[in-house]
Description:
5-stranded parallel beta sheet; 5-stranded mixed beta sheet; 9 helices
Amino acid sequence: MDNIIIYTDMPLVSYEAALADIDEVNVRVVKGAELKDFATHNPSLIIIDEVASFKDVLMTNKLPCPILFVGNIFTDFTVRAEGYDFIQKPVNTTELVIRTKALLKIKQYKDKIEKVSTTDELTGLHNRRYLQERLESEISRSRRYGTRLSCLLFDIDFFKVVNDMYGYEWGDILLKNIANKLIAMARKEDIVTRYGDEEYLLVLPNTSEENAFLFGERFRREVEKMEFIPAGEEEPHKITISGGISTYPCMPDTEEDANTVIRYAEHALYNAKHRGKNKIIQFSQMNLEM
């Protein structure tokens, strides 16, 4: 459902009904003074109707959607948005609907491109590009508010054996099954990514190392109970995972970024592999034992 938000100080918007007739749209009329809070409405398209005070908001904010200006055409300021168009009054509702649909299509195409560029095609999880951007943002948030941030890096044990024994098709099925299980167990605010061929990286905002370990152990046991039976086999092929955990801030008096936190999780994962696999290792505990 696309959200069309009309910002106006006019007592009546004559064309609201015409917009509401467009398939799969939700239309809301909001006072112009509320434009600064546009994000709360999750807009797909913003319509600005003769709002005298909108210039400052538009010049100081980048809007995540197209804008349609109704009324006078302005050329003395820069519009920072996904696209924009003008329609003068009196409004021709047929023309308005055509322009609205075109701007909504622009938003849909850009959203699709963004999703493709940040999503792993096989599993549907976020990819490493998305991870890098979000993890830097979450570390900044954690630093600002003094909260903990944990990263869990999982790797499927003996994944090459699955590919060699049953073929890459069954390897792909296993990757998707584990990805679906991880998505089902993660919270809405967690960031779930495919990090490597058989690796998954989960970012847990506002989560201590202890709680991250509890999640990691629970997920490890769930994978261990999986019944993975490739075609032609009578018995399940036993699947296990290993995992490494790092929690920001990881080391005292050390400047750490996204790459640092991931590297510490990798060290913990390698340690779990070295200890015989099917284990979850915390980076802090690994340091204590070195």
